[in-house]
Every structure is written in structure tokens, then in C-alpha cells.
Amino acid sequence: MTPSYTRQTPGASSRTVTVSVETVFRRCGAESRVPGSWGRSSGSPGSSGALRPTMSSVAVLTQESFAEHRSGLVPQQIKVATLTSEEESDPPTYKDAFPPLPEKAACLENAQEPAGAWSNKIRPIKASVITQVFHVPLEERKYKDMNQFGEGEQAKICLEIMQRTGAHLELSLAKDQGLSIMVSGKLDAVMKARKDIVARLQTQASATVAIPKEHHRFVIGKNGEKLQDLELKTATKIQIPRPDDASNQIRITGTKEGIEKARHEVLLISAEQDKRAVERLEVEKAFHPFIAGPYNRLVSEIMQETGTRINIPPPSVSRTEIVFTGEKEQLAQAVARVKKIYEEKKKKTTTIAVEVKKSQHKYVIGPKGNSLQEILERTGVSVEIPPSDSASETVILRGEPEKLGQALTEVYAKANSFTVSAVSAPSWLHRFIIGKKGQNLARITQQMPKVHIEFTEGEDRITLEGPTEDVSVAQEQIEAMVKDLINRMDYVEINIDHKFHRHLIGKSGANINRIKDQCKVSVRIPPDSEKSSLIRIEGDPQGVRQAKRELLELASRMENERTKDLIIEQRFHRTIIGQKGERIREIRDKFPEVIINFPDPAQKSDIVQLRGPKNEVEKCTKYMQKMVADLVENSYSISVPIFKQFHKNIIGKGGANIKKIREESNTKIDLPAENSNSETIVITGKRANCEAARSRILSIQKDLANIAEVEVSIPARLHNSLIGTKGRLIRSIMEECGGVHIHFPVEGSGSDTVVIRGPSSDVEKARKQLLHLAEEKQTKSFTVDIRAKPEYHKFLIGKGGGKIRKVRDSTGARIVFPAAEDREQDLITIIGKEDAVREAQRELEALIQNLDNVVEDCMLVDPKHHRHFVIRRGQVLREIAEEYGGVMVSFPRSGTQSDKVTLKGAKDCVEAAKKRIQEIIEDLEAQVTMECAIPQKFHRSVMGPKGSKIQQITRDFNVQIKFPDREENPGHSVEPAVHENGEDASEGREGKEAEPGSPRRCDIILISGRKEKCEAAKEALEALVPVTIEVEVPFDLHRYIIGQKGSGIRKMMDEFEVNIHVPAPELQSDIIAITGLAANLDRAKAGLLERVKELQAEQEDRALRSFKLSVTVDPKYHPKIIGRKGAVITQIRLEHDVNIQFPDKDDGSQPQDQITITGYEKNTEAARDAILKIVGELEQMVSEDVPLDHRVHARIIGARGKAIRKIMDEFKVDIRFPQSGAPDPNCVTVTGLPENVEEAIDHILNLEEEYLADVVDSEALQLYMKPPAHEESKAPSKGFVVRDAPWTANSSEKAPDMSSSEEFPSFGAQVAPKTLPWGPKR
């Protein structure tokens, strides 16, 4: 489709599109080699190799960019093939039809630019999406309402941030009630989102920093880029006073951490600038060009020589001062040189003023001021042009008197070198003047590359600008072109209701493109936003008439169509559409005349609209309703709670287990995300299939662990009260009993059975609690709700639940605390008998009252320990606050050297927190550092996956473990010096080598903590060091131990948690090495030896199974023994558990009558007897040939051989029909027992007689029917022809012979047709 270069917008004012001819030509995709062309671009992001849309297909250029294009283009750079009307019909060249592939990479290195259609360089695609996680601590959160998490103001802000930045946000609450935010997207989007998050979701602090006023601009940077980058990096808002404000204070707003970072960066920038000097020199504006020099060469030279930065204000800025920045000595040199130039020019130069037309000023200036620089370079004269917004036409020349005349000549030459002209042409003809892919204008550009053409949208004229002679020639050619087009082109406008326009266009423009291609016209359909019914058709008069007729026919057909709304639940829309639209494409292919429109997902609508012919719409409706019914049936869903640790086993290696369950049960199974706390697996599909999948998943869990399942009978009427409000009560029982799963029957089922599933001991505990609770509910249950601040809950519960258990035991009441997802986080529920509940209520209220009594206390902590409490954003303090009822602990600011620590909170909490801080200090003072030497090669194994083993040891023993850095060259014995805390650790030891036998530094692991804990942790670390043992296994069994693709050995390694190394086959070694933890090695060795025993037993069994027995059977009986599709021989093989091998017909070296049976000796003999029994029966059979008229064969065989199979089954015979081309086409062979053969022959002869009568009648009727007319033979096709092929250019090569099997080999020999018992298919 040819892009439209001009577009008339009804009611819109005219707009001018300024286009250089060469640019238009390149824009249209011509084969131009002009640097910087911007037509099709495979490399530019987002272009997808397509033209980028503007208001039309012509790009809008500014005056400067036009001049840049014009000046940067020379005639030799444009390569355009000018096509005459005769050449357009010529065949393509060989290179056009078959572009050469790119050369090898080695050749490309020396090539300037590879030619051909394959020359575009394909760049590797890099991932542009990143993910970052930000944490907002509880004390810094702006919105702390736990009940409104995921809604309210916080959610609105997150949505706004997502819409504004384009990043994706996911929020979650951490255990410490801090807010974790995961942001995904492109780097700049993530950084902007982070800044917004800090500004809007985190409480803001502010600080000021004072730096000298002259340094402020360095903080801002060029165009404010440095300031923006600093704000993004630190997630702060930095306010710098305006230049007219005398203040030197910079205000920083953000989080404490961000403020510190930003303050540090600002002070760094200021410190850097303190080292540099700045000087300003007043120089008259008129002398700036002499100081800069032609093309800024002189000032660049001064800057390079002195190392000083010189900033000369551009001509458009009215400032006169020149700013010098640099080291003081060099700066002084640079200032001196500039002053010298200024003084000299001031003495020697004079000026003259001349009048030059305003329209010619741009030619004097030239592209990017190049003409002015050229005059300055040649003559040393500066030309001053009045600004474009000024009406003045006076041009001032400044320079030495003897050079002014030459400069004046050049100014007038440049001013008069260009002219402007206009050609009258209807606006609708503009795109035809440009031509397809710009080829019409290309003819002009070849001759006159400096001509510039303006097409004015909505105006009937074309403006030409360029050298006078070139413009007149171009004008003549365009006028001739316009005259020719007016004579042979036409246009028409038709009215069609705008609601039909999108149907006229068709999917992806299919309909309108077909009409355009067939009629060779251009069709302009107004956009939907205009609501216009006017369609314009332009082109050849005949094509215009044809296109008009077709469009009107299409419109009238649409008026007769009907629309139907189908109600389909929105949840099924995506399924009906299918992945990448596959399923909806199938429906559209099945009903091509029906247009199916789904609502926008954001509308939450269930209405699917069908439009098309009435009958087709009805058929499509029924089809889609049936599809929806199937989807409803398959959308049954059940949830299965499975312990989190077993999810990986249910998934299996590479998803093998879950994939198998999905395929066999035909269900959809969704598992929770790995980082999710949910244990529920959701199964979707047909009800029966979902139940089957559920049973299989539960059985996997049961097999993997000591999972017990107990059924408890509790009256159905008590179920709701046992579950509690939003499941709070039952959840508290499940958590208390080690996370067992308690499953109640579906409400309304009438079942009393409650299922408890989990580890045996926990299940029993849960059963007792559930029965006790049910008994309480049956007698008389009493409930009371009390409220306490959420931060008190952990303190009330106590460490390991000790405090709350004490209350429970003393009163006998159950106390239920809210879960994280509960709306009312301060609500505590007490359940039980009334007197027990009242007593528990009194005890809890007394505890809460004490907690509400806020006191302030202080304690002394040595400043050397302060850092331990405040590092990692105060993690230790957060843990203390969490554990002891939200007590606030304040340490003095760093640098004050104060040892006073303030605690504020409930009295009991403050005392407990003080005690805990004292314990931590005692631990710190008793802390020692111990070395543990473990060879570096074992460090990864000791750490475990993602450091899990080492994390467990640090938790168990409350120690810190530090691993050394990896040594790059472990072969060297001399260790590089390690720098710690800025000091040289190797000081005083230079040149000395490590003592022989001492552990290398890269092997030493440091453990810090209490001495006894460090020793225990060291033992635990050493126990994790893998040990290697060797096991002798016969070499011939190694491949069986490894298994198919290593599956056997992988299974053993996973089972015993060891690494098993089998020697390479070429070593012929019997030794297998097992490496792992000492505790696992014995089990692994026993398992390996057990496997060896199994394999040896299999070998013995294999020897017994390999007994061979040969049976001599005439080859003519072989097909009967094999049976139809191998049915008979397969039955014998399965029944006797043997392998039966028939001789290869193509192998003449082996006897054709020998059948080999392999298996256990007894089984092979039984199989032989079965074969000989069949042979005995076959030997009694006879074969008879029957003459049967070939014209009735097809009738006797029947559709797909159904009739002949029925006859063969009925008479227990085999009937074979002759193949096509047989000597006697009427000869049919019947084989079977003598009496059966006779009966079968009688039957088929009777059928022949009956069918033959029909055949004779049919042939007689054919004589009176008109024979079909044969079409005249068409002239042979000329085939695909190309010009300039290698075989035409060089006589040594010839065109490939398409009939030659050597030049065009087949993909394989034709498969011989399968021989059927009743002959070939007809």
C-alpha cells in the first residue's frame, strides 16, 4: 500500500509539511546509501522495520535540519534506479530475486559496509527489565493502618506510581510490619518509582547543607541532569536556592538514609570544586567569533594547551562575559592569551554594513552556521546577522580593511545562490507526484540534489527552493508531471455510514488492501474520531469506478447483516481466545463471515458481540454456547492443603511428577509461589478428574513422610462454631499443633466426619483439642473479646508461647490471637466455660493495663557496643521492640561518646528489654574469634544451597561465621597481603612465605561468638566437610549403575545426599568413589552394594532368558503366523514371554525358513508348539483361483474393505484380489479349509451375478450421456525468469536443469503402496 503524502482534514486549517526531496525519497524506502537516512530501520527500538507514522507519511523538518540534510548530501551518494514504463515490466535481476548471504565474520572485519539485502547488522537483544526490592520500616511508614493493607490511600498511591512510571509494584508486609515493595520494569522507570515510593509512602525528614554559592551550578549539572540523577540515586528531593537568592543553604528532604547519602554527595562535589579556580572576562559580543576562531578551532587549541575550560556564550545569548575554569596557573595563561587576541582585533578591525534581503539571510548563515564559519576561515572576517525575529535587513561585516571586500563578495554570492518558486498542483495529486517509494521525485533528485521541495497539506501548490538553474529545470519537470496526472487521474467521494468503516477495512486492513491492489487506487477512510461518512477514492478513472462499486456493494451487504449479543462469563473469555489467539482464530476460520468482538477486560462485561449473515451468526452462536458449556463443566475447582516441604516432591525433577498428574487426570493444577506462605494446591477440571488428581497428590505426601490421617466424628451443627469467625479458632488449633491440616466437610452435606492430617504426634494432639472444644461447645461455650495493641501481642504470648500457655493451663480457657490477614488486629478472643473465660479475661486485662502504664528509664551501655545495636538499620533494636511490647530504645547519636541509653514503654516491657540488652552486652564482651581450617574446595559444599547450612549453624549457636575470599590462583603458596581497616596486614612480614604445613589464608573460616558456642559451631562446620570412600564394583556393571542418561546414579545421589564418581570407561577401573558427609557415606555404600547385588541377579536372569530355539517353517506361512498388524505373533510373544524373530527377506545369506525364539527354555518350547500348531492348521488349507469380473471388485470389497472383511470372517477364509497391472485382472484367490473355500466361492459368484447386472445397465446409460468438453491446451508457462544470472554472465556456467535429480535431488524415495488382501485402492 502506497503511503499517502498529503492528507486533507475536513474543517482543519492547512498545515505545511517541509520535506527535502532526498529525504522524501529515503523516507519512502528507496535504495539510498545516504548516511543517517531514516526510512525503514531494523535497528531502532520500537520501529519493527516499519515506517513510523506522522500526520502523513512525510516527515516534518525544521529549517536547520533541512539545511543540514541539503548540505550533507552530494550527488555521488545517491544511487537510484530510474524506471521507465518499459523497464517496469522487465524481470528482476538475479541479485534482486536471490540476495547474497553475508560473508563470514572474518571477512566482515575488513569490509567497509556489506552490500545486499542482508547487510543490516543484527544486534543481540538484551533484557531491559530489572527488579529491585525496597523496604520501608514500620516506624518510617506514612500509612500504618494494618486493617487497610491493599486498599485505601496507600493502594491509590501505588496505582498512581505504576501508571505514571510504567513500573510494576508488588507490596507485602514483613513480620516486623515493615513494608516490602518489589518494583519491576526498565531501569529509569524503577528509579523514578523508587523516588515516588520514598516521597509518598515513607515519612519524610529534612536537613540543610551549606556550600559556596558558586558551587551550586555544579550540583545542578548540565540541563539539571546531575541534580536529577542525584535525586534518583538517593531517593530524595534536593532544593537549591535560585540564583537571585543570596542563601547558600541547600535543603534535602527524604528518608534519613537518603538524606545522609545526598548530603555526602553534595559535599563531595563542593570539595572537588574548591580545588579549581573560576574567572570571568568581559569581552564585547562582536569579538567572540575571533576568540572562538573558525569552527571553534582557536578556543579548542587554547583549552587543550592550557587545560582550562573556556565557556564562550553562544550567539543567541546576549551575555558578554567569557568564563574560564581550571587550575590557577593554567587559567591565568588562558586569560592572558584571550585578552591578547581581543586587544589585537580591537585595534586592527573595522566594520561595514550592507543590506541583504531577509529571506536570503538563511543562505548567508548556511546549515548550522557553516557558511559564516567558512567566510571567517577564508577571509578572517566576522559576519553579524540580525536575529530572525528582527525586521532589520542590515548585515555587518567586521574584520581587517583589506579583507572586507573579499568577504562582501562571498556574502552576496551566498545570498544570491538560491531562489524560491511555486508550482500549482491539486493537493490530492501530491502523493502521485511523489510516486511509489518516491521514484518519481527520484528522477529529479538524481539531476538536482540541491533542490528542496515543500508540499503544503491542504493547499494546491508545491514550493521549490534551491540553486536558480536547478529550480527552473525541476519546475518544468514537475509542471509536466502535474499536467500528465490531471489528464489521466480522477477521484470520487462516496457516503457510507461510519459505523461500517471498520468492517470495510477488515482485519488488519485485508478488505481495503485487496480493493486497492485490484483497482490500483488509493482509498481514504476518515478516522473513527471524526465520525465522518465521506470516503474518498483516487486513481485511474476506471479503477475509481470499480472500487466505488465494490465498496457500495460491501456496505449494502453489511446493512443486511444482523448483530447478536452472547452472554459469556468474563472468566472464560481468555480461554475462548486461547494462547496468542489460537482458539478464536479457529472459530473465525470456521465462520469466516462472522465478526466476533470481545469486550475490553477493564469493562468487566460478559457480552460477546457476533455480527454477520443471519444463518452464520446462529451457527456460530450454537458452536460457542457448546464450547462454554464444556468450559463450565471443566471449571470445577478444589483446594488441597499440602505441607510446604513436600511441594517440591509433588512437582518432581523438571516438573515431571506434576506434568504426569496433569496429563493423566486431564486437570489444571496450580501450586502457590515458592516465596508464598500458602500451602494450598488448587486443582481445576471435571469433578471426577479433580478428585482423582487430589487422591494422587495426597498419596505422594503420605508416602514421603510419616503423615497420619484421622477421622473424627463431630456433629455437623457444631462445625461453624468450631471453625470460628473467618476460621480464626480452627486456625489457632492448627498452628498450636505443628501446622496440621483439619478438613471439615462441605456445608450442607450432612456429614459429621472431620479429617485431621499431619505428623502422627501432632494429629493426636489436634484430635484431643478438637474433641475437648466440641464437648465444651455442646455443654455451654462462652466467648469474650478483649482488645490490646498489636505490638503487645508477642509480649503477651511470651517466648515460645510460654506466658499465654501459663494462663491457659491455670484457667482452662482457649485464647485466640488474630492472624496476619485478620482485619481487626487488636482483637483477642477467649473461649471456654464462663468462669474460666472470666478468670482468663481478668489475668489478661491486668497484663494489658501494666503494658499501658508507659514509663521512661535509662541504662548505661559502653559506646563500643552501640554499633552492634544500630547496624543493619537497627535490626537488633527492631527485634527487641517486637518481642517486648513495642518498647522504644534510643541510643545516643554517633560521635557524642555518650553511654546513656533511653528506654520508653510499658514498665514490664522496659524491664524485660533492659535485661535482654544486658544479656546481649555480656555476649559481646565474652565474644571471641576462632579459626576453623577447611580446604577452600569444600567451602561451597559446607555452605549448602543458598548458604542454608551455614545460616542454620549461625542460628543454632548464635555465632557469626565469615568465609575468606576465593583464591584465584590456588597453585601459589605465597598469599597476597590482606588489608584490614586500612592497615597493611603484611607489614613487617614482606618477603616471607607461609610456613610449610600451615593452613592457607583462603582455607581459614572465622567464627565469632561466645567461646563454648564457637567451639560447638566449629565442630558442626567440620562435620559438614565431605569425606571420600572407595567401593569396588565390577566394571561391567558401571553402565547399569549410571542408568539411562545418568538417571540411576542421579537417583542414588539424591536419595543418599552424596556425590558418586564413576571412573571413565577407558580406565577400565572397578573403583567407584563416594563423597559426602560421614553420616551419609555408610548408607550410600550399603545402597550401592545392594544395587550391585540386584544387577548381578539381573545378569544371571538375563543369561537364562537368552536361550535360543529355531523352528523351520515354510516362508509362505509366515504372514499367517504374524497375523493382521502382527496380532497373532504379538499374542504368542505376550502369552509365553518370549521374543520371536522372523528372517529378513532382503538378506540372502540367512535361511528364509528359520524362525528364532528367545527366552526361558521352557517358554521357548511352549511358543514353538503354538507356532507348529498354527502351521499344522495352515497345511490343511487349500487355495483356489476364481475368475471374477474386475468391474465388480470394488462393490464386493466395499467402503474401506468393510464388505470383504465381513465375508472373510463369516466363511473363515482369506480372499486376495489382483493388483493393478496383473496379467489376469479377473483372477481372485480364496484360501482356507476345503469346505469353507467352496462356500465362500459360491457366495462371491452369486454376488458377481447380482452386481454385474447393475454394471451392464450403468454402461448402457453412459452411451447416451454427453461426453465432457476438454479445455484447449494452454500455452506452456514461461516459468520464473531472472536477468543477469551467473549462467548468462559466464559461458562456463549454465542454468540448472529442474528435471535433473542431481541438481534438484528428492527428499527421499517414494514409499511403495501397501498391498491389501483385496488388491490396490481404486
Q: Level of helix content? A: 40-55%
Mean pLDDT: 76
Structural class: alpha+beta
Number of strands: 48
Biggest sheet features:
4 strands, antiparallel
Low-confidence stretches: 1-89, 103-123, 970-994, 1268-1275, 1308-1322
Tally of DSSP helical segments: 48
Span of the ends, CA to CA: 49 Å
Shape: extended
For the largest beta sheet, what order do the strands appear in spatially?
A: 1-15-16-14
Strand content: 15-25%
Q: Please compute the radius of gyration using only Cα atoms.
A: 46 Å
List the helices and strands and how they pair.
Elements: E1 15-20, H1 21-27, H2 63-71, H3 94-97, H4 105-108, E2 129-136, H5 152-165, E3 168-173, E4 179-186, H6 187-201, E5 205-210, H7 216-220, H8 225-234, E6 237-239, E7 249-254, H9 256-274, E8 277-282, H10 288-292, H11 297-306, E9 309-311, E10 321-326, H12 328-348, E11 350-355, H13 361-365, H14 370-379, E12 382-384, E13 394-399, H15 401-415, E14 418-424, H16 430-434, H17 439-447, E15 452-457, E16 461-467, H18 468-488, E17 490-495, H19 501-505, H20 510-519, E18 521-524, E19 534-539, H21 541-559, E20 562-567, H22 573-577, H23 582-590, E21 595-597, E22 607-612, H24 614-633, E23 636-641, H25 647-651, H26 656-665, E24 668-670, E25 680-685, H27 687-704, E26 707-713, H28 719-723, H29 728-736, E27 741-743, E28 753-759, H30 760-780, E29 782-787, H31 790-797, H32 802-811, E30 814-816, E31 827-832, H33 834-852, E32 854-860, H34 866-883, E33 888-890, E34 900-906, H35 907-925, E35 927-933, H36 939-943, H37 948-957, E36 960-962, E37 979-980, E38 983-984, E39 1004-1010, H38 1011-1023, E40 1027-1032, H39 1038-1042, H40 1047-1056, ...
Antiparallel strand pairs: 1-15, 2-4, 3-4, 5-7, 6-7, 8-10, 9-10, 11-13, 12-13, 14-16, 15-16, 17-19, 18-19, 20-22, 21-22, 23-25, 24-25, 26-28, 27-28, 29-31, 30-31, 32-34, 33-34, 35-39, 36-39, 37-38, 40-42, 41-42, 43-45, 44-45, 46-48, 47-48
Helix pairs in contact: 1-17, 5-6, 6-8, 14-15, 20-21, 32-33, 37-38, 40-41, 43-44
